[in-house]
């Protein structure tokens, strides 16, 4: 837009490349829209799948405190999905149909190897296709994935679609709390021998699978996403940041 | 599933030579739907030469005013804005979606905040709504507006802003920046760019006193202001944007379908399953997408952008073949699995069976 002589016309893609912010579906160019919807769908599907996964973990909980933590994570992840879905709705997504689209609790076999490839009809991160098989497993998965989400949030809270960035700024502290609940749970878990052994096994299982959520280094889409202001750091940078945080968190528990 | 509702035009007031302020009233039963937050916008739709256009306009009324008002500035050669400026009259009906947008912060009657607003030209509309709302509903908050225009004659809501200054003495101030007319102080002439921002922050506005900044104007102005606000310590969460620009290309001319093109062999029998119901109908092979044919046959298929980008219109081809013109949304694996974007797909065979249910 240009307000007559107020300023020369400016291409939206140039505006974005210079750090500009979009504010409504009307502003959004076609390709941007595709990538934005894809990003939102991936988040929504991952949160719904995570929530469905944690729902089952509630019954693995050894005590009331743990049961409450798992319930809270189950509830809030579904709530986060709903908030982002509300942004998709402004692009015409039929939200009622959308949430009925997939079986969010469906999982592959524990020993399946999906790599970073998305499978099935939904856009969830591959890690959410793997089943959780006990309390130690749930705690470790939540710690590792919680840290990964924390790293992803540094990107999501500043992406160039303002209504979505704002939703993420509301979600980020609660996701951080989920990770913190996980770390508390981990400390209790490793206090005894059996718990520690289970945690070691779970770390070995989940670490590479969570690492895969950062995608491939040098992703072909990254350049476009960066120009759109939908990404800032590269996959490799985010992965490195996560690895450092994992080392810092698991170290004191003797799990590195 | 229609998200549009009729609004009655109750008043059209000429605000400047190029802008009108339109007052609108929802039907009694739609009143709650059109309850708005300050700074939100309405999206209208209207057919021009048989083609539907959708345009958004920010609400310029305060929440407490109890009416819907939009300010529409005529854009040179603009279809909707010209029509609104020249033809809209009291008594007319126009269709709109309920208010949308997040260009606001929650109102708290106990708040003692300093808001800073930047508006360029017609970008004043949502900012005016915010100004009026916070001045009325947050008695201890204040607002500073920096308002850029080409010349005195193009300033929208000039009088209303003056009145607000008098009503809320000491709580509302306006700094006009005019591009063409030199004023006494240099600062107020020219564009709002990096240099002007620096000067504003050096002498007129203490950035540390600002709780939230609202920006609505042309892109270069938004970029310059946002960069300066960040430089002066405001966080992402403290800066609110509203952009009027349109990301869609101009009106695409749809290929006309003439009856003569529909000779034998040019038609297709489409069989469509939606919500568990299956229906068959004839459709042309060219000029009409599967989605449009489905909708034309009164099936309420989900769709949105009709541009091949949101995938809301995705369906699965069970039998026959289609050609998909654009695909910005589906991954290769989905395409291999038989999924297509119905809004982008045209039949290639004389029988096509698709389902929206799988
Ligand atoms: C969230 C939102 C809120 C908005 N609020 C308001 C508002 O309160 N008041 C208001 O007047 N407008 C507002 N707009 C802009 C409005 O929606 C239309 O884009 C504008 O009125 C032009 O539409 P049109 O059909 O008249 O022009 P079109 O027929 O779409 O465009 C004709 C030509 O003008 C160019 N053009 C389009 N828009 C502009 C522009 N703004 N300036 C200069 N050239 C342009 C186009 O590139 C095209 O070449 C808002 C937009 C959005 C997205
Ligand atoms: S309606 Fe959006 S891709 Fe078809």
From TrEMBL, chain B:
Gene designation: paaK
Obligatory cofactor(s): FAD
Biological source species: Paragemmobacter amnigenus
All copies of domain FAD-binding FR-type, residue ranges: 2-106
EC number: 1.14.13.149
InterPro entries reported in the protein's UniProt record: 2Fe-2S_ferredoxin-like_sf, 2Fe-2S_ferredoxin-type, 2Fe2S_fd_BS, Beta-grasp_dom_sf, Cbr1-like_FAD-bd_dom, FAD-bd_FR_type, FNR_nucleotide-bd, MRET
Residue span, 2Fe-2S ferredoxin-type domain: 268-358
Protein name from the UniProt record: Phenylacetate-CoA oxygenase/reductase subunit PaaK
Keywords of this entry: 2Fe-2S, FAD, Flavoprotein, Iron, Iron-sulfur, Metal-binding, Oxidoreductase
Catalytic EC class: oxidoreductase
GO terms for MF: phenylacetyl-CoA 1,2-epoxidase activity
Origin organism lineage: Bacteria, Pseudomonadati, Pseudomonadota, Alphaproteobacteria, Rhodobacterales
């Amino acid at each position: 837009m240009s307000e007559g002589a107020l300023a020369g016309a400016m291409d939206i893609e140039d505006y974005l490349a210079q750090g500009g912010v979009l504010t409504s579906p009307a502003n959004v160019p076609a390709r941007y829209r595709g990538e934005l919807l894809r990003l939102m769908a991936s988040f929504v599907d991952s949160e719904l799948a995570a929530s469905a996964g944690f729902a089952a973990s509630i019954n693995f909980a050894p005590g009331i405190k743990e049961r409450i933590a798992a319930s809270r994570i189950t509830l809030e992840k579904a709530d986060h999905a709903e908030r982002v879905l509300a942004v998709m709705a402004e692009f015409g997504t039929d939200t009622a149909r959308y949430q009925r689209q997939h079986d969010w609790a469906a999982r592959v076999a524990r020993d399946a190897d999906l790599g970073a490839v998305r499978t099935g009809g939904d856009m969830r991160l591959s890690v959410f296709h793997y089943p959780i098989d006990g309390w130690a497993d749930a705690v470790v998965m939540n710690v590792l994935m919680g840290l990964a989400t924390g790293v992803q949030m540094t990107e999501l809270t500043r992406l160039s679609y303002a209504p979505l960035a704002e939703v993420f700024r509301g979600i980020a502290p609660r996701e951080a709390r989920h990770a913190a609940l996980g770390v508390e749970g981990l400390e209790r878990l490793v206090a005894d021998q059996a718990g520690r052994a289970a945690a070691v096994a779970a770390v070995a299982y989940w670490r590479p699978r969570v690492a895969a959520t950062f995608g491939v280094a040098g992703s072909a889409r990254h350049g476009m996403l960066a120009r759109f202001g939908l990404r800032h750091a590269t996959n490799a940078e985010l992965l490195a940041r996560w690895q450092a945080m994992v080392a810092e968190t698991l170290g004191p528990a003797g799990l590195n | 599933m229609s998200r549009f509702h009729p609004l009655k035009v109750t008043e059209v007031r000429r605000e400047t030579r190029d802008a009108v302020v339109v007052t609108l009233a929802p039907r009694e039963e739609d009143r709650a739907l059109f309850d708005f937050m300050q700074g939100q916008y309405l999206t209208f739709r209207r057919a021009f030469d048989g083609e539907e256009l959708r345009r958004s306009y920010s609400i310029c009324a305060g929440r407490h005013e109890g009416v819907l008002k939009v300010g529409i500035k005529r854009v040179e050669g603009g279809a909707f804005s010209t029509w609104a400026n020249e033809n809209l009259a009291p008594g007319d009906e126009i269709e709109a979606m309920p208010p949308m947008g997040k260009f606001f912060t929650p109102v708290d009657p106990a708040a003692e905040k300093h808001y800073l607003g930047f508006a360029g030209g017609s970008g004043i509309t949502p900012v005016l709504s915010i100004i009026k709302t916070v001045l009325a509903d947050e008695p201890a908050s204040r607002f500073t507006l920096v308002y850029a225009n080409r010349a005195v004659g193009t300033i929208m809501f000039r009088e209303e802003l003056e009145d607000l200054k008098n009503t809320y003495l000491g709580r509302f101030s306006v700094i006009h920046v005019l591009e063409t007319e030199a004023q006494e102080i240099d600062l107020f002439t020219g564009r709002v760019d990096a240099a002007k921002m620096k000067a504003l922050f050096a002498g007129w506005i203490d950035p540390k006193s600002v709780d939230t900044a609202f920006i609505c104007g042309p892109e270069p102005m938004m970029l310059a202001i946002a960069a300066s606000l960040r430089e002066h310590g405001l966080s992402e969460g403290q800066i609110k944007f509203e952009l009027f620009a349109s990301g869609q290309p101009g009106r695409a001319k749809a290929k006309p379908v003439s009856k003569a093109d529909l000779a034998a062999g040019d038609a297709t029998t489409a069989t469509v399953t939606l919500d568990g119901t299956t229906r068959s109908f004839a459709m042309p092979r060219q000029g009409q997408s599967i989605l449009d044919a489905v909708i034309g046959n009164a099936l309420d298929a989900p769709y949105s952008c009709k541009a091949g980008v949101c995938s809301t219109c995705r369906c699965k081809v069970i039998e026959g073949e289609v050609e998909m013109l654009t695909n910005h949304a589906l991954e290769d694996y989905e395409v291999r699995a038989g999924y297509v974007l119905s809004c982008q797909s045209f039949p290639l065979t004389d029988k096509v069976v698709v389902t929206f249910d799988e």
